[in-house]
Amino acid sequence: MASEVSPAAPSRPFSDRVWANLMMLAEYAEPDQPGWTRRVFSPAYLESRQVVADLMEATGLEVTRDAAGNLLGQLAGAEPDLPALVIGSHTDTVAGGGRFDGMVGVVAAIEVARRLRAEGTRLRHPLRVVDFLGEEPNRFGLSCLGSRAVTGHLDPAHLQLRDASGLTLGEALVGVGGQPEAIQSARWKANSIHGYIELHVEQGARLEETGRRLGVVSGIVGIHRVRVELVGRPDHAGTTPMGSRLDAMQAAAQVILGIDRIGRRQEGAEGVATVGQIAVEPNSPNVVASRATLVAELRSLDAEWLAQGDQQVAAQVAQVASETGLVGELSWLSQEAPVACHPTLRRLLAQAVRELGVDPVELASGASHDAAHLAGLGPMGMLFIPSRGGRSHCPEEWTDPEQVALGTAALLRAVQVVDRAQL
Ligand SMILES: [Zn+2]
How far, in Å, from the CA of 19 to the mean position of ligand 1? Predict the structure, then answer.
């Protein structure tokens, strides 16, 4: 792990410097974890954020940390009364994560600010670069901590969430320089931003498969998550005839296949349905399963598709329960609505990309982002650069240096275009 702060030299060419900073940041990884793991609240995360703060400062940004542990760097605008144009992302990773998801958006945003200063370009709006605290899921079970806080959606009840050791989220926040008792002070006023633009790796393979270099995001999918509980009866697997069983495993299999069909029901609707988690009791080879608990999720840009999917999942579970004689129960864990990117911002981002001589493609984001929360504060837009093989949340996550450089150039151009626009 690197211990010394080494902001890359300002004389380095544009593309090299962004890449060098990305690779430098990747060195701050948890030593006992695979890949480039840097989870929120870990010592590696704490160290890396000091590096990010130093980079911001070396760039001439006025650096502050808010009560939610967000790291902010501000560049004054020519018209200080105007709302800020905000760019950024996050620098935490999942366990076993990569070097690009989130980091690209923060490092590129700092480079954009540096370029503007170096060229003597003054934006009309103040430019605010943000490294949002903890975007990825964490041990407290709540993601997008920092972006929730700026929208006023990180409330006192959330701060009481505990990890397995009994530590509260509020206590953990103190460790990253936050002030849980003043959490509301991290909130930004409604309509207090001119716009928010996040550059991110696609985390899917659409750009690569279509041979495109830059994507303009149309919207961020909504995610509905449901826990399904199927309760039968434990019986001897050798002596209980097939017709006399209340087999929770067998019922779970039917529900899983049914949910898969729900995901496939409408070709082209860009909806997906997944059962990615299951627990079975007693989980023994010679006992008929008495209980199966599975968690399913539906994702789509289309709220109607999600609402229909919810009903179909409920109907599927009810049908399986009535056919098998088991008890089937559902509890919705979350129902987050899809978030559309701002139409004018989408158009301006596409224009900025074209000005670089690149033909952009519009695509939906199947993953959630800090941007989904920022949309509650003002116009929100996202730019995607390719992920090799569509791989993400794994050590193999990769985006070529030229693609990172092009994404940074697009973000710079977008900032200049959006700064002058009425949204
Ligand atoms: Zn991310």
Answer: 17
Strands 287-288 vs 380-385: parallel, antiparallel or unpaired: unpaired
Phi, psi torsion values for 393, nearest 5 degrees = 60, 35
- How confident is the model at residue 267, as a pLDDT? 65
> How far is ligand 1, taken at its centre, from the CA of residue 327, in Å?
39
The rounded Å distance from CA 317 to ligand 1 centre is: 33
**pLDDT > 70? residue 188:** yes
- Tell me the CA–centroid distance for residue 384 and ligand 1, in Å: 11
For domain 14-221+338-420, give the CATH superfamily. Answer: Zn peptidases (3.40.630.10)
> Residue type at 261?
R
**How much distance in Å is there from the Cα of 147 to the middle of ligand 1?**
12
Rg (CA), the chain: 23
CA-angle at 322, arms to 317 and 328, nearest 5°: 40
- pLDDT over 60 at 250, yes or no: yes
For the segment 304-359, what is each residue's pLDDT rounded down to a tens digit?
999 999 999 999 999 999 999 999 999 998 899 999 999 999 999 999 999 999 99
Distance 290 CA to ligand 1 centre (A): 39
Distance in Å, CA 135 to ligand 1 centroid: 7
What average pLDDT does the segment 187-206 reach?
95
Within the chain, all domains assigned CATH 3.40.630.10 are found at: 14-221+338-420
Cis peptide before 282 (omega within 30 of 0): yes
CATH number of 222-336: 3.30.70.360
**3 state DSSP class of 330:** strand
Per-residue pLDDT at 287: 98
**What separation in Å is there between the alpha carbon of 10 and the centre of ligand 1?**
27
Which residues in the chain are classed under CATH 3.30.70.360? 222-336
CA-CA distance, 216 to 340, in Å (whole number)? 12
What distance in angstroms lies between residue 258's CA and the mean position of ligand 1's atoms? 31
Residue 274 CA, ligand 1 centroid: distance in Å: 20
Could you report the per-residue pLDDT of 14-65, keeping only the tens digit for each? 668 999 999 999 999 999 999 999 999 999 999 999 999 999 999 999 999 9
Average pLDDT over residues 67-91: 97
Q: How far is the CA of 204 from the centre of ligand 1 (A)?
A: 12
